[in-house]
Amino acid sequence: MTIADIASQAKSASILLAAVKTDVKNNALAEIAKALKANSEEIIKANLSDLEEAEKNNLAAPLLKRLKFDQAKINDVCQGIQSLIKLDDPVGKTIKATELTNGLELYKVSCPIGVIGVIFESRPDALVQISTLCLKSGNAAMLKGGSEAEKTNSILAKIIARATEKTAIPSGWIQLMHTRQDVSAMLKLDSSIDLIIPRGSNEFVKYIMDNTNIAVLGHADGICHVYIDDSADINMAVNIATDSKCQYVAVCNAAETLLVHKDIAQAFLPRLKDSLDKFNVELLGCEKTTKIIDIKPADDNDWKTEYLDYKLSIKIVDNIDEAIEHINTFGSGHTDTIVTSSTKNGEKFMNLVDAGDVFLNCSTRFSDGFRYGLGAEVGISTNKIHARGPVGLEGLLIYKYKLIGKGHTVTDFSNGKYKYTHKNIEKDFNL
Amino acid sequence: MTIADIASQAKSASILLAAVKTDVKNNALAEIAKALKANSEEIIKANLSDLEEAEKNNLAAPLLKRLKFDQAKINDVCQGIQSLIKLDDPVGKTIKATELTNGLELYKVSCPIGVIGVIFESRPDALVQISTLCLKSGNAAMLKGGSEAEKTNSILAKIIARATEKTAIPSGWIQLMHTRQDVSAMLKLDSSIDLIIPRGSNEFVKYIMDNTNIAVLGHADGICHVYIDDSADINMAVNIATDSKCQYVAVCNAAETLLVHKDIAQAFLPRLKDSLDKFNVELLGCEKTTKIIDIKPADDNDWKTEYLDYKLSIKIVDNIDEAIEHINTFGSGHTDTIVTSSTKNGEKFMNLVDAGDVFLNCSTRFSDGFRYGLGAEVGISTNKIHARGPVGLEGLLIYKYKLIGKGHTVTDFSNGKYKYTHKNIEKDFNL
Fold it and tell me: For the domain B224-366, what is the CATH superfamily, name and number?
């Protein structure tokens, strides 16, 4: 089967899946969890084989750790599925209802997007999480995992597909792709695939965004800023900057650049350095910064680099406007925070910084679906349309307008027989 | 100035415009209306010059009519601006508020998308409507109108820009492009332009969609279907089919194909023909149809053609499933309607037809922002993400997450000092 055939199967399944009732989906999710537990041995065996191969290929230790999928991980994903079962079904919600005229009622109702293509990193947990999120939201899933997890992913996809075949879920809703060529082929299938969610390195996400006409939900860079305003509480500023940089460096919501108002730089920077030195953070500063603390000079490249490491660039700015301008020039629209005791400046920063997540007096590291309480995270988006910031299940949904008449024609209105009333109706869609 | 320079000006203006208060925007809108009225003479003179040129070039009569921009049209657009002033400001609405922990509050707040590129047809009214919709929603606008309206559009854009310069609206928020080359250049500016709304012929919209990485909101084809189920009331079916086809043929929500259940075809088709003959509709049918009514045969191309004319293709289907399958294969995801007295089939059709607008017992012609009561229409979208169907002002909006803390760090949570509460807050964002 070609990727086009697979996508066409997914498309057909997605049409039927859109109309599947909540209890059927929840039952299928329970069957998936049951099957994963029942087939633990087979899964672990496949994973051990992937691990062996990866060790032979000298995969780095952190990647090996992510690749590992043992009984504990199986139990974790099954627990995740139980939480997903408890989540409210996001499909079929009446968003708005309007009477257009007596007997002619318009309902805006949430529905799945259709076919979602997801390309994810080496963790096999991702396959289970993503496919079950798609199922709960009524979407078909075309999945491609890291090649080093190929055997684990294959068996997981097979178990999940088999588990739902016994239920009323349309077969073909979950499809696994195997090669980079498969991904390239998928990027061209804009008539069957409705949304692509790429996870992985910046270069990879950028490649996807630049090579498809299909909508892409995600983010390439995460160049997050901490701005210390002149009125900041210095203790708070040091804490927030340290947390934003050091709490976990390898993630997109970690800070990469610190901006500091010139009037507080002298007092703040030495305190910051003391704090970051405990984590051995490499500091690079603008010329003015290097006159206050003894660190290496930053060059223009530093302002646009996502280090994902114990490394931070620092710039002294004349005022909040220069800080905002810097962020809107070099930032990636991900997450930026201001530390200030001025409400006016807090408001200004949050209004004028063009990012999905703008924070006041807290760490950039809060930018995350779990911390936001979204229930489940589909990804973090720096898009300016559809969904932005940490995206929950609602990112996998769109809506349909359903209009119910009793034979109404537009001619009836142009004739003057009917008049538009456009009254809001407090009623859920129900035929 | 290059198009990149213009886009960069628009981008800078958009950042400031996002924070402009409602009364400032409404005041600017009032200034625009005042200036249009005050400069009526100059506008009409420019338009007469465009009209003269167009007549020399033998522009078709309907196009000439659309191009005409006289005092009555000026009064109309000014009235439109007054309605827009009365509309609620869609920016700054708190969509959701959550307490993450005591003192750490998350607000999901609506905000403008940024810079919208709009390419529109020959009507100069469109320039005024689109730019004022952008202004009300806090977006900068890059506009390109039909070349035959170049003089009218230039003077309109100049008057609008001048009128807002006296207000607190950032200059540069409205930009006019002049050539096709400008449009091609704009398609590449994905770092400054956030959304493109193309209006015009199918080929043109498809060209835009295929040649940019910027998100595009719109529709190419409008291949709308009327399906007559076996249990349909025949009078109602004839009325709805006639209205869907004939009420106004040149628009995207007019029906192009009629599907009819085999068990009602014999009774329905002659009645339909009688009704459509009054409008001189050319009918093309599948083999079975031509055995019931004396019309020309349809070929496979007819099922995927948007006639935009007094022309309709007709196909007899075995059952509702074949109708749904046909629509999902040949339709454009725009608007499809079923005529039936079966609630079950109505529900099935509305769930399984993959279109932005799915109707029961009413005409496809209702698919329209004004008829839906949206207040203003930005366009009709067949996208599967962001906005679908007739799109009102909300299509020009996205949201930001604003998180307000008191020095909160993620370390506080990993240390166990704080716990996530994730409580909904019934409060609008306010610092």
Answer: Aldehyde Dehydrogenase; Chain A, domain 2 (3.40.309.10)
